[in-house]
Amino acid sequence: MAFVYNALLVLHFIGLASLLGGFLVQMRTPDKGVNPAMLHGALVQLVTGVLMMGILEAGLLPDETANVTKLSVKLGVVVVITILAFIGRRRTPPQVALWGAIGALTLVNVVISVFWN
Question: Residue 47 class from Cβ within 10 Å (0-12 exposed, 13-18 middle, 19+ buried)?
Fold first, then answer.
């Protein structure tokens, strides 16, 4: 099960790269908006995060324990990011506020991951 968890973690990082990369690629464009990479990255992060949390909560990795509070906060943030990305994909650019909120929340999720022990 450790292999499955680690594979999900790799996919989770790929989702983060897609989400943050989609945000950063638009820094210079005047019509900032939510691109498909941001939406797909958010969806990948949401699905892989939930699956990894399920593996931890089920006790399938005996050496690992889940910080449920931290993971719940991260889940809440990524749900908001995903909702904003869906809204942004339905609207036409410019969407500076949505674009900025998604980027800021993505960075907040990274900071939570790194600094919350």
Answer: middle
What pTM was computed for the model?
Answer: 0.91
pLDDT, tens only, 102-114: 999 999 999 999 9
Number of domains in the chain: 1
Task: Tell me the average pLDDT of the chain.
Answer: 93
35-78 tens-digit pLDDT: 999 999 999 999 999 999 999 998 888 888 889 999 999 999 99
Rounded to whole angstroms, the Cα distance separating 40 from 16 reads 10
DSSP string, 30-85: SS----HHHHHHHHHHHHHHHHHHHHHHTT-STT----HHHHHHHHHHHHHHHHHH
Amino acid of residue 1: M
Non-local CB neighbours of 76 within 8 Å, separated by 6+ positions: none
Show the domain range for 58: 2-115
